Amino acid sequence: MTLSVWRFAHLALAVISSLFLVMASVTGAILSVDAINERSNSYPSSDYQTLNLSEIIPMLQKNYSEVSMIEIDHNQVINLEAYDLDDNEVKGIIDPKTGKIIGKPQKKSEFIQWVTSLHRSLFLHETGRIFIGINAFLLMLIAISGMALIIRRQRGLMRFFSKIIKDYFLQYYHVISGRLLLIPILMIAVTGTYLSMIRFKIFDEQKIEHKIPKISDEEPEKKDLAQFSIFKNTKLSDVKKIEFPFPDDPEEFFKLKLKDRELLVDQFNGEIVSNIPYTKTVLLENLSLDLHTGRTNIVWAAILGFASLNILFFIISGFAITFRRKSTKIKNKFKPEEAKIVILAGSENGSTIGFADHIHQQLLSSGYPSFLALMNDYQLFPNAGHLLVFTSTYGQGDAPNNADRFLSLMNEFPQTQNVNISVVGFGSRSYSDFCGFAKKVDIELRERSWTNRIVDLFTINEKSPEEFVDWVKEWSLKTKILLKTTPAIIIKNQQTFKK
Which run of H or E residues covers position 289? Predict the structure, then answer.
């Protein structure tokens, strides 16, 4: 039941949000490429991490008649607004060591602006942001439910990264990529959800209001800017923005916007007039923006882009897996009450049903009234002389999704005649509880008064045709029913099943 709930939740969330997730993943991948390109073509200084403000601010005031502002963006690019020594307005990117203009700020292209607007709001403004925020939250739930399914599949959290049994391409890589990209996708989802919550002011918004002390009537004593303690102790890498005061005005202050706080600094003596730390909400907002966009790190931006594209693969492969599971076609010529041989199959992804169908088709071709059904379709079979059960195992010895009611149905519908039984389990010996559910079924059947086990429990490792042939030979020998025993025929049947 737990497996069904997680699987249903995982599928339902994917269906509800699929269209939005397709759009968000495509635009997210484009924006990650833009972040990489922007970072690669920026003008970061080699001295960015070592320079402090006591070296930069005096140099700027010496080289420019008036400095209004410097702002450091997420690419470590330093933008200056000032007037040169000839009183001409200057705006550009500077080398922090020399103060010289080395480039001009580049605007985002119209295409990137269009993609950004689509990614953030679907061009629907606040309404669109609500939709995007909800789908970011749904993506988080999808990732969590997917993680729960992997944990069940791998028999516990400690085996999360253990070997995965390869059923078929889409199923295998759906799980593999889900494990590898779980953290990036959770980061995308959690940060996207948090940024949406910030946008709609679910958390208290910080309003920074500096309290300016009373200005003395005495002429202030001036210190050398290079000797200001706050400037000597503050690295350029810790700064987001500096607003410069109007010179010689005692009511004007340096305003330093650092990564974790905002300061007012007296322009004459360097004393900190006001110090307001950012709240945790603001700090988490900045961190979420960095993690969500990858704007501060090329490698992380590339990982986010790859994860965004893989969301498309998850959607396509996830729906394909569901359709494959739901579209298992079982064809019967005889009704349950007419069947002399009943074959029941329990399979998580359909491969075990392929083996069952191989036997079913041979029996029909040989003129035997055979009936094939899923284990959850167990009922009274009044004319059955043979009951074959082919089943895989899911989780820690659990039943596949289409066999989880079989044991209770046996109690509800005991057969009224003696039936020859044979159980065949499918699994992988790399798991400690190899064919665990098949073993449970075999024990339960043997305890029934109406059963007669003619072949001991057979277990098939990694869907081996050769091992399956061994069972076919033994069952044919005991029943005198001739079946084909060439592994190549079984492989061909597996490949054509469900087409």
Answer: helix 280-293
Strands (E), 95-170: 101-103
Domain contains 391: yes
Query: 81 with 225, same domain?
Result: yes
Do 371 and 249 fall into the same domain? Answer: no
Domain annotation covers residue 101: no
Domain count, the chain: 3
**pTM of model > 0.85:** no
Same domain, 299 and 418: no
Domain match, 147 and 187 both: yes
Is residue 484 located within the same domain as residue 399?
Answer: yes
- Give the structural domain span for 344: 328-496
> Half-sphere exposure of 303 toward its Cβ, with a 13 Å CA cutoff?
18
46, part of any domain: no
Count of alpha carbons within 13 Å of 321, Cβ hemisphere only? Answer: 22
Residue with tokens 């953030």, as numbered in its chain = 120
How far apart, in whole angstroms, are the C-alpha atoms of residue 169 and residue 154? 18
For residue 48, tell me if it sits in a domain: no
Q: How many CB atoms lie within 10 A of CB 330?
A: 15
Distances (CA, A) of 404 to 43, 391, 411, 441: 62, 11, 13, 11
Residue by residue, pLDDT tens for the chain (499 residues) are 455 566 666 667 777 778 888 899 999 999 999 999 888 877 666 677 788 999 999 999 899 999 999 999 888 889 999 999 988 999 999 988 888 998 888 888 999 999 999 999 888 888 888 888 888 998 898 888 888 877 776 667 777 777 776 666 777 778 888 888 999 999 999 999 999 999 888 888 888 888 887 777 677 778 899 999 999 999 999 999 999 999 888 889 999 999 999 999 999 999 999 999 999 999 999 999 999 999 889 999 999 999 999 998 888 887 777 776 665 678 899 999 999 999 999 987 778 888 999 999 999 999 999 999 999 999 999 999 999 999 998 766 788 888 989 999 999 999 999 999 999 999 888 777 889 999 999 999 999 999 999 999 999 998 888 999 999 999 999 999 988 877 666 655 555 554 4
